[in-house]
Amino acid sequence: MKNKKQKTMLTVFVMAIVVVAAAIIFWQIIQNRHNQKELTNSKNDEIQVLLDKDFKDGYPGTPREVLKMYSRITSCLYNQSMSDKEQKALVEKMREMFDTELQQNNTLEEQLEDLKADIREYKKAKRSISSYMIDKNSSVVKQKIKGRQCASLYASYLIQEGNSYKKSNEQFLLRQDEDGKWKILGWELVSGDNETTDEEK
């Protein structure tokens, strides 16, 4: 009788453990789904936030702010999954910050084609833009070129590929348009490390 009672208690104990374990596993599954949904929503929110930017009434006021917005859009394009429609809309938003000369030399169709090819290479190599840094305002060099006010500054992009990281340093040239807005005229890759501040993500 005593042995039978002990066996019954052991069975109840084991069943209780199984129920608790099942409850924990179920909670973890629900939590993971919730976290994944939040992550997806967060990514979609960033795309929408950028697309909702109104550059007519809220255009970035300094060369540094223009480059920060350009880098933010670039990171979104390379790091996040999106539809072709969203991708095109983001590139069009980016091109609002381009000087008319750059727009003419690099059409929307050409830019989209090059971008898609570059993104394919990034995904194939499991590469992403981990973070970026922009020259502080005091480091911006302003000068007149052919009678137009221009500004030069650096951006440094930290590229993650698997478990390794490398820096891509670029020098940007911006020019003021007739409305006094700073527009990106062009950029080029530079070697070596450039002093940058204020990491952005």
Explain how this protein is built:
The protein has 201 residues and is an alpha+beta fold. It has one domain (43-200): Nuclear Transport Factor 2, Chain: A, CATH 3.10.450. The protein contains five helices and six strands, in the order αααααββββββ. The protein has helices spanning 2-51, 63-79, 84-95, 100-105, 108-124; strands at 127-134, 141-145, 148-161, 164-176, 182-190, 197-200. Strands 1, 2, 3, 4, 5 and 6 form a six-stranded antiparallel β-sheet that branches. α2 (63-79) runs antiparallel to α3 (84-95). The longest helix is centred in the N-terminal third of the chain and has 50 residues, at 2-51. It is elongated, with a radius of gyration of 26 Å.
Topology summary:
Blueprint: H1 2-51, H2 63-79, H3 84-95, H4 100-105, H5 108-124, E1 127-134, E2 141-145, E3 148-161, E4 164-176, E5 182-190, E6 197-200
Antiparallel strand pairs: 1-3, 1-6, 2-3, 3-4, 4-5
Helix pairs in contact: 2-3
